[in-house]
Design a protein that fits this description.
The complex is a heterodimer. By secondary structure, chain A is α+β, with helices and mostly antiparallel strands. Chain A contains seven helices and 26 strands. Chain A folds into three domains: 2-114, DNA Polymerase III, subunit A, domain 2 (DNA Polymerase III, Chain A, domain 2), CATH 3.10.150; 125-246, DNA Polymerase III, subunit A, domain 2 (DNA Polymerase III, Chain A, domain 2); 254-361, DNA Polymerase III, subunit A, domain 2 (DNA Polymerase III, Chain A, domain 2, Roll), CATH 3.10.150.10. In chain B, helix 1 (11-22) crosses helix 5 (101-107). The chains are: A alpha+beta, B alpha+beta.
């Protein structure tokens, strides 16, 4: 293999791929990137056996070929090279020579034939979607995923497509749930997949960097994203996701509407003196106001009122303040609606004027 | 031969079989004979051993003795003065009762006994050689003298299984020590091949005898703790958490005056120390339990080394509570052991004073004693705590909800610790401090780890457990036996902020978990909790066990690491914080947090003083 690539685009592609490489893989070749040069295209591939990423860049090829090379070293070197020079890569027996300007490196390689590669596409249905919008939807839900590996099905985000609801993303850790949805203007079939946490994060990054549309494909065993030069394939979590529809309260009688930013600021201040592990705060809803209070075991306290549109009965509910703040920063509107029944039932938080996003937070008994 | 195959064994064969259980080795003979002497009210007993007991075991006491007729009967199987009905079997207060010991011993040895009943004018001498009994009158004497000659002469297999003389002698010494602690007022002497090996004087009090048995070093590195819990009286002599041992051999348990070696008791003792001792080290302690004989079954093992408790949970809880109370009192005291080690290490490198190592020893145990006894006088007043609330608090367990908002709950620091003024940090790892009477070396990571841990514990202690309600209840199928336990104890879990709903015969849904642990797997958390509760049966203890484990990990992560530079102000702050922290003498893993070297130590080190 012998190629020459512009340093800037090369760095960007290497970076994209090396993100998912496991830093300390017991299998040495998985720490490597696969470089494949053919048909005037360089393809860079990385995989951790769960997720595979491939990045294609159009270049000039002197000699076609394929080889694998340490992702970390390649990335660290290319990062340091002169911004404006081209990078020349050339295999020399079992080594790869990297030249740029006056710099020259020699890195060891492993043969491409041993590289596991990326599985064939195996999905049932695809939609086209604005990349930036998908990134926003992921950002508004991913914080609710669980990190508890014993409940695998909670460690991912459910991507669900249906003719009625369009695309919905749902994440829950068993204490709270986030759901965002967008209607689609294309004809769709119903399909769903639980996408693992790491893949969710990578999909978000790729979408953020992509101008225009991306293609999202869901299958029983695989989820795939095609975004311009990049594509990502991930295994899905093969488990049953909780029936989220049952969890969303539909008959909460009380509703308070409050300024989102102010509420968030108050929570942030109050939590300074909340218990540092449980972050428990108390919201006292009464006529046209919400009182936020927190205290810790050192008897330190915080108390603050915020005006709210509320005319219901007096209710006092304990929360993990973090859960509330997560929701408030995911929501986009100026004001939020907080709907509840009593101090122990699920609380529903909605954007002002739209029911497309739904956040359910379970109270805390404190 | 008749066609009848089954027949009753002759008495001497039956006795030999019984001997297999009771008389395992010379030490068991010594134990049986000593217990007989003690049951006979002896105030002084002398044991003489020749060739590790294989040649001769002699036990001489000054007890009530026996009449000639009784003496003869005593050599018959199941002959005993100690019980007479099965009813008595449930109220055993004496050592022996099975009536097996003497005939068993006599059946595997050449047996000699001289005795006379107290106040009688005649004595008797019995000789039994392989089942042949010979009785002859003898001069009256005070008490009984028994000689067991050529033990196992007719059971060569047993003889072949004897261990080395040293091992057998050690076993005899162990037996004597145990009985010595059980009977502090009785004089006990042991001679091995004519040399005096043990000598415990008559009329000692309990503490005195414990120290005589455990060694004088134990005196300065232990405290006495008494407690009563659910009708169980415990008086314990507890070694400092930093005064530990490599195995369980330095633990002694007495149950109603009997030395017992029981896994549950060992586990309970370790559980009490768990918070403050390194996991592969073992406490040094003497624990005496007294309870109604109805609540303990001693008729489990012929040698009576094992017992069965009616309520093992209560016994465990009592021991744990007792140790916790003791640890709380001595939490700030480091044993003299690290200082000894430090000095010995330094002395090894100073060839000029080859004798110093041996000399240093006596002094250091003195310094340890001085330090801990300084604290002890202050402890004495608050030593006894028996009411349930205290107990709960002692078990660290965050208090139950009722007492949740008492601000003063938590360990109290007793005794004053002065760690002096920091001088310097050594290798970004240790702090050197000058105290009134010398220097103190402090391990900054270990110290900070303990401080963090105690802080988190007190947070727990003071706040009630906030309960995070589940959005999607978690299914849990624990199996039938746990399910059965749970249906009786559902309320117990409520106090741990765990809310369970039984959905079917053997499955539950978890509706809430402690908010503190809400990031953990609910099923694992609840399973662990139930496990702890079932095992220990004491609510606060179960909870603390689950929470402590988790807190311990958190504390270690959040602590100052070795290798971090600390400004002198930070060092000072750390020392002052240590002085305010309970249990500061050791980190969560039981390593000491500081070591003292007094001026006296330093003087010795440099040969200024002898």
């Amino acid at each position: 293999m012998h190629i020459t690539v512009p340093r800037t685009s090369f760095l960007q592609h290497v970076q994209r791929c090396q993100n998912i490489v496991e830093k300390r893989s017991p299998n040495a070749i998985l720490s490597n990137l696969l470089l494949r040069a053919s048909n005037e295209t360089l393809e860079i591939v990385a995989t951790d056996l769960q997720i595979g990423v491939s990045s294609k860049v159009h270049i000039h090829i002197q000699d076609e070929g394929e080889i694998t090379i340490s992702a970390k070293k390649l990335f660290d070197i290319v990062k340091e090279l002169d911004v404006d020079s081209d990078v020349e890569l050339k295999t020399e027996s079992s080594f790869m020579e990297i030249k740029s300007g006056r710099s020259k490196f020699r890195l060891s390689t492993l043969p491409a034939i041993d590289y596991p590669g990326i599985p064939e596409q195996d999905t049932d249905f695809s939609i086209q979607f604005e990349g930036k919008d998908l990134a926003t939807m992921i950002g508004a839900t991913s914080f609710s995923m669980s990190t508890d590996e014993t409940r695998k099905y909670l460690t991912g985000t459910l991507f669900e497509i249906s003719p009625e609801q369009g695309l919905q993303l749902i994440a829950t850790d068993g204490h709270r749930m986030a759901l965002v949805g967008t209607l689609l203007d294309q004809n769709v079939e119903a399909c769903r997949a639980i996408v693992p946490r790491k893949a969710v994060a990578e999909i978000k990054k790729i979408c953020e960097e992509t101008q225009g549309q991306v293609t999202l494909s869901l299958g029983k065993r695989q989820v795939r994203l095609d975004a311009g030069e990049h594509s990502l394939t991930s295994k899905v979590i093969d488990a049953k996701f909780p029936v989220y529809q049952d969890v969303i309260p539909s008959d909460n009688p009380e509703e308070a509407v409050v300024d989102r930013i102010r509420m968030d600021q108050i929570l942030r201040r109050s939590m300074i003196v909340a218990n540092e592990f449980t972050h428990d705060v108390r919201l006292q809803f009464s006529n046209n106001s919400i009182q936020v209070s927190a205290h810790n075991t050192e008897q330190e306290q915080a108390e603050e009122f915020v005006e709210a549109d509320y005319t219901g009965k007096d209710v006092s509910i304990g929360f993990n303040g973090r859960y509330l703040r997560d929701v408030l920063s995911a929501v986009q509107t100026e004001r939020v609606r907080i709907q509840f029944k009593d101090e122990l039932s699920p609380v529903l938080i909605l954007e002002d004027g739209s029911d497309a996003s739904k956040y359910v937070v379970m109270p805390m008994r404190i | 031969m008749s066609d009848q195959l089954i027949h009753i064994l002759p008495a001497h064969v039956a006795n030999q079989i019984a001997a297999g259980e009771v008389v395992e080795r010379p030490a068991s003979v010594v134990k049986e004979l000593l217990e007989n002497s003690l049951d006979a009210g002896a105030k002084s007993i002398t044991v003489r051993i020749a060739e590790a007991g294989k040649k001769r075991i002699e036990v001489e006491d000054n007890g009530y003795g026996m009449s000639a007729a009784d003496a003869e009967l005593a050599l018959k199987r199941h002959a005993t003065s100690k019980i007479s009905t099965t009813e008595d079997l449930h109220h055993i207060a004496s050592h022996g009762f099975r009536g097996e010991a003497l005939p068993s011993i006599a059946s595997v040895s050449r047996f000699r006994m001289q005795t006379s009943l107290q106040g009688s004018h005649e004595g008797v001498e019995l000789r039994m050689d392989l089942g042949e009994l010979e009785t002859r009158p003898a001069a009256p004497r005070k008490g009984t003298r028994i000689e067991v000659l050529d033990l196992f002469l007719n059971t060569p297999a047993r003889l072949n299984f004897m261990r080395t003389d040293k091992t057998e002698e050690a076993a005899i010494i162990e037996v004597m020590r145990g009985l010595a602690i059980c009977n502090p007022a009785v004089a006990l002497n042991l001679e091995l091949d004519g040399r005096k090996r043990l000598s415990f004087t008559e009329g000692q009090n309990e503490r005195g005898r414990v120290i005589a048995v455990m060694g004088s070093e134990f005196a300065g590195n232990s405290i006495e703790q008494r407690i009563e819990h659910e009708g169980i009286q415990i008086s314990a002599h507890l070694g400092l958490p930093t005064y530990h041992h490599r195995d369980t051999s330095r633990m002694l348990f007495l149950v109603n005056g009997r030395v017992i070696r029981d896994k549950q008791l060992i586990a309970a003792l370790r559980a009490g120390y768990r918070d403050v001792m390194f996991h592969d080290r073992y406490p040094v302690a003497v624990i005496r339990l007294e309870m109604d004989p109805v609540n303990v079954d001693v008729n489990v093992h012929p040698a009576k080394r094992e017992v069965r408790f009616k309520s093992p949970q209560a016994v465990r809880a009592a021991i744990v509570a007792c140790v916790r109370a003791g640890v709380e009192r001595m939490g700030q005291t480091v044993s003299s052991m690290p200082t000894d080690q430090a000095l010995q290490a330094m002395q090894k490198t100073s060839p000029a004073f080859p004798d110093a190592a041996s000399g240093s020893f006596s002094y250091q145990s003195g310094s340890g004693a001085g330090f801990s006894s300084g604290g002890r006088s202050k402890f004495a007043s608050g030593a006894r705590s028996s009411n349930a609330a205290d107990l709960q608090h002692l078990l660290f367990g965050a208090p139950m909800r009722e007492s949740a908002h008492e601000p003063e709950a938590g360990y109290e620091i007793q005794g004053t610790l002065n760690l002096g003024t920091p001088l310097a940090q050594i290798h970004s790892c240790y702090i050197l401090s000058q105290s009134e009477d010398g220097v103190v070396l402090i391990d900054q990571h270990a110290a900070h780890e303990r401080i963090t841990y105690e802080k988190m514990k007190s947070q727990l202690d003071r706040g009630q457990l906030a309960e995070q309600i589940m959005l999607t209840p978690e299914k849990w199928s624990p199996g039938l036996s746990i399910a059965a336990w749970l249906s009786d104890h559902a309320e117990t879990l409520k106090t741990f902020a765990v809310d369970l709903d039984q959905t079917t015969e053997e499955s539950f849904s978890i509706r809430s978990v402690p908010a503190l642990l809400s990031g953990e797997s609910p099923v694992e958390l609840v399973a662990e909790l139930v496990d702890a509760c079932m095992l220990i049966g004491f609510e606060a203890e179960g909870r603390s066990r689950v929470l402590e484990r988790w807190l311990g990990n958190r504390a270690c992560k959040g602590s100052i690491k070795a290798g971090r530079m600390l400004a002198i102000e930070d060092q000072d702050a750390l020392l002052r914080e240590m002085e305010r922290t309970p249990n500061i003498a050791q980190c969560n893993h039981g390593r000491p947090t500081y070591v003292r070297l007094s001026l006296n130590d330093l003087d010795r080190l440099f040969g200024r003083k002898e």
